[in-house]
Amino acid sequence: MGIVEKATEYHLGLLKAKLARYRAQLLEPATKSGGAGTGFDVQKSGDARVALIGFPSVGKSTLLSKCTHTVSETAAYEFTTLTAIPGVIDYQGARIQLLDLPGIVEGASQGRGRGRQVVSTAKTADLILIMLDATKSDEQRRLLEIELDAVGIRLNKKKPDVVFKRKTTGGLNTTVKLTKTDERTIRSILASYKLHNCEVMIREDITTDEFIDVLIGTRKYMPCLYVYNKIDAISLEQMDKLAHDEHTIVISCEMGLNLDHLIERMWDELGLVKVYTKKRGAHPDLTDPICLRRGANIEARRVQRYSPVIGNAFPIWARLVRKLDFRGKSSKFSPHAQKVGLSHMVQDEDVVSIFTK
Ligand SMILES: Nc1nc2c(ncn2[C@@H]2O[C@H](COP(=O)(O)OP(=O)(O)OP(=O)(O)O)[C@@H](O)[C@H]2O)c(=O)[nH]1
Ligand SMILES: [K+]
Ligand SMILES: [Mg+2]
């Protein structure tokens, strides 16, 4: 950065920090009183929740009605859906809760329409589907992103690698060269938040905005798929162009086009793995997998399925048989079978037996 750019970035950084603080305060009281800031009261169920966000009449309810056994009213007029409607997608033995939501309009994050409720509910999901009308301009996508950004949702981004520690003294450490912001800006922002006694470790080349995000602390980093519906009404060229964008999928709810692929993509984005359980001496039940987050360990689910062993003093072990073909009659234990602790990280299609010893 040049000197002028640095000075601009510095002042802009402070201004952004101030604005971010005001916004966070504005959102807070509503949440506490249970008013406009809270989402719809729908029980979470299944292995993961996916929320449908979009402008009115893009086809959200049509999708729910096509992919689940739940019927959500659909019509050509706007705001047909007035509350959250949950449905369940059965896929590979997993149950994914799909949440149909009312359409939102520009200014939703400020409370227009049911916008606040909708975006608050979106925060409770494991994956967001931003549904767009392929026949309309791409401006709609940018507008929706602005609304979600305003309530602290960061789409398809990782939490920046910055660590804060409250201390009696202050300190700023950077392990990488900062090219998009600088230490002076960071220090002034910390001072404007009165964070004098705080050790900060920056381990990534972050921007000023990303630093403010970690400082505010309530940002939600969520995976998102952009779903362009109504491709039956556009040209093949237009469709081709949309389909090549990152995190994007094109469908037609009405004609049932590409919906299978959409569900596959949802599954991938959710990062679920299936684990089969097996009683000693018996074959595993391949019809009833347990779904876990990728990177989860065996312990993550033992409470639900193996409650008798909880709280007893014996060490608990699991026998792990990786990707065994149990379908054949003559199948034997694989040589990969191993005894592992509950902290063992499971992989897709692992077979697990749990026992006490
Ligand atoms: N051409 C076309 N029309 C569709 C498609 N999917 C839905 N529609 C139509 O779009 C209109 C709106 O569909 P809805 O499912 O009610 O849309 P919504 O997003 O739930 O709307 P709100 O609840 O009002 O926000 C209906 O007239 C549907 O028939 C599609 O794939 N192609
Ligand atoms: K509608
Ligand atoms: Mg609807």
Automatic annotation (TrEMBL):
<dbReference type="InterPro" id="IPR012675">
    <property type="entry name" value="Beta-grasp_dom_sf"/>
</dbReference>
<dbReference type="InterPro" id="IPR031167">
    <property type="entry name" value="G_OBG"/>
</dbReference>
<dbReference type="GO" id="GO:0003924">
    <property type="term" value="F:GTPase activity"/>
</dbReference>
<dbReference type="InterPro" id="IPR006074">
    <property type="entry name" value="GTP1-OBG_CS"/>
</dbReference>
<keyword id="KW-0342">GTP-binding</keyword>
<protein>
    <recommendedName>
        <fullName>OBG-type G domain-containing protein</fullName>
    </recommendedName>
</protein>
<dbReference type="InterPro" id="IPR006073">
    <property type="entry name" value="GTP-bd"/>
</dbReference>
<keyword id="KW-0547">Nucleotide-binding</keyword>
<dbReference type="InterPro" id="IPR045001">
    <property type="entry name" value="DRG"/>
</dbReference>
<dbReference type="InterPro" id="IPR027417">
    <property type="entry name" value="P-loop_NTPase"/>
</dbReference>
<dbReference type="GO" id="GO:0005525">
    <property type="term" value="F:GTP binding"/>
</dbReference>
<dbReference type="Pfam" id="PF16897">
    <property type="entry name" value="MMR_HSR1_Xtn"/>
</dbReference>
<dbReference type="Pfam" id="PF01926">
    <property type="entry name" value="MMR_HSR1"/>
</dbReference>
<feature type="domain" description="OBG-type G">
    <location>
        <begin position="48"/>
        <end position="271"/>
    </location>
</feature>
<dbReference type="InterPro" id="IPR031662">
    <property type="entry name" value="GTP-binding_2"/>
</dbReference>
<dbReference type="InterPro" id="IPR005225">
    <property type="entry name" value="Small_GTP-bd"/>
</dbReference>
